[in-house]
């Protein structure tokens, strides 16, 4: 189970969240004993989307060093679908 845990900002995605979810998806994709991953959000909101405060401040919400320029989770979710 993966829980987005930024309830004070409605679990918006910043680069740390993107990297952590990507790492969890990579673990899911490469662990033969894991078959299902559940993504949930702490508090009242699953996820309100991108961290607009981070973007406005000039920070990326992409996972650091991720080659496709997006969330590390995006390609790993595809590879986990086996």
Description:
With 82 residues, this protein is mainly alpha-helical. The mean pLDDT is 85. The longest helix is centred in the N-terminal third of the chain and has 16 residues, at 15-30. The chain contains three helices and two strands. Helix 1 packs parallel to helix 3. It is flat and about 40 Å long. It starts with a strand and ends with a helix. Strands 1-2 form a two-stranded parallel sheet.
Quick take:
The chain is mainly α. The chain contains three helices and two strands, in the order E-H-E-H-H.
SSE string, helices as H and strands as E: EHEHH
The total count of helices amounts to: 3
What is the makeup of the main sheet?
2 strands, parallel
Low-confidence stretches: none
Q: Care to count the β-strands?
A: 2
Q: How much is the radius of gyration in Å?
A: 13 Å
**Relative helix content:** 25-40%
Distance between the termini: 18 Å
Average pLDDT score: 85
Q: What are the salient characteristics of this protein?
A:
single chain; 82 residues; mainly alpha; two-stranded parallel ribbon; flat
Topology record:
Layout: E1 2-4, H1 15-30, E2 39-41, H2 52-56, H3 72-80
Parallel strand pairs: 1-2
